[in-house]
Amino acid sequence: MRLIRYREYEDGPVRAGLVEEDRVHALAQDILGPYDKIGRDLALADAILEAPCRPGKIVCVGLNYRDHVTESQQVVPEEPVLFMKPTSAVIGPGRAIRLPRHSRRVDYEAELAVIMGRTACRVRADEALDYVLGYTCLNDVSARDFQRKDGQWTRAKGFYTFCPLGPAIETDLDPGGLAVQAWLNGELKQDSSTAHLIFNVPFLIEFISGIMRLEPGDVIATGTPSGVGPLQAGDEIEIRVGGIGGLINPVRLGDDDTCSK
Q1: pLDDT 10s digits, 106-127
Q2: How far apart are CA 232 and CA 251, in angstroms?
Q3: Domain spanning 2-50: which CATH class is it, in words?
C-alpha cells in the first residue's frame, strides 16, 4: 500500500489517504488503519501533501554509513549512536525549511525513515520487520556549527522545520537495498544504498526497542551516507529513496508561523 496524509485545499482538514494509481481514496481512520475507504477521492496531483504520519517520537541514528563516518572525521561506532528530534521539527513535502538566522551552516542529510506500525518492546531482530508499517523519506536537517559547538546534537537537529518527512509511506518494501539520494537544485549530492548501513533496520529496531518502547507512528531515521552539504536560502532540496519517490522542500531564511502548525 501507498499511504499519505493530505488536504483537499489549504487550511482544510487533514485526511488519511490510500493512493491507487493516480487517485487518492480517503480513509475512515488514520494511516495506522483500518484501511476502510469512505467513498471520497480526488486526483493525487490535486492533493496537498502533509507529513505522512504524526510521530510520538523520532529516534535518529548517527554515523550509520562508513563513508559518512569518514567524512565526519569520526570513529566507526561499536553500537548505534542515537539521538532524537522533536516532533515540532516535522514538516511535509513542499513546506519550507527555515534557516535560523544565527546559524552559519545548515546541512541536508538524506535518510530512509522507518514508520512503526505496532508497539515494539524488546523485540528480536528476526521479528522486527513484523512491527513496521512502512518506509518513507526523511531529511535530517542539521545546524552543523551548533552541532560542533555544543558537543551534543539536540539544538543542532531540533529547530522548527528540521525534519521534512514524506511524501508517502510505502508498506511493501524490503529495507535492505534501497537507493538513498539527495538532489540539491537538481544536482546529485548523495548517492548510496541502505545495503551499506552499518546497523541494518532489524538490528536497529531490536536495539532501540530494548531501550525504549516504540509506538505505532513513531519514526526511526536510519542515518545518512556521505555527501552532506550546506543549504542556502533559495535552494530546493530533494531526498529520494528507492520505491518511495521524492521529498522536495524549498529553503528559506528566517522564521515563519511554524509554531502555530
Answers
A1: 999 999 999 999 999 999 999 9
A2: 7
A3: mainly beta
